[in-house]
Design goal:
It contains three helices and six strands; from the N terminus they run ββααββββα. It is an alpha+beta fold and 178 residues long. The chain has a domain of 105 residues. It has a two-stranded antiparallel ribbon.
Length: 178
Amino acid sequence: MVDSNFEMASTNTLGIPEAVFIDDIKAAAPTVEEAERLYQEKSELMQKYRLLENHLLSKVQQLKDNKPSVVENLTAVRKLELMADQGEKKTHFAISDSLYSSAVISSQSTVGLWLGANLMVEYPFSEAKNLLEDNLAHLDSQIEATNQNLSFLRDQIITTEVTLSRLVNQIIQLRKVK
């Protein structure tokens, strides 16, 4: 059921309901019972907003955490391609944080990329670069879209907090009159 005090917004990609500011709180909640009912509805909406906010914040963090590995892989592919073009055969690479090794590069112009789930696929340098560049662009667009949704959501949270505050004041005013 969609409350008449909010409508679906077209400015977010997740279909987050837009919290509409109630201009006349006295008309929207003329009795204590109606004010408490409206307060309960807005409180539930606020809980949903907060839950979604936490989810989006963790999603942004996860996307940002994935970005350095994609950049690192893209840099490595570019370096391998450059080395192959220049005829270099020997390189050093990190096995772990403090452990390095040497390798001799074959004359092939391919590279193996981990795609996840213990799956490695061999690609020519150009295809590997394109795949990694596409992944990086997709990560950036996902981060941007998620940040826009977060910004929209924060506006809705602020509007709902103001509404809740005004409803508490209305409930207090109505109880004084009784």
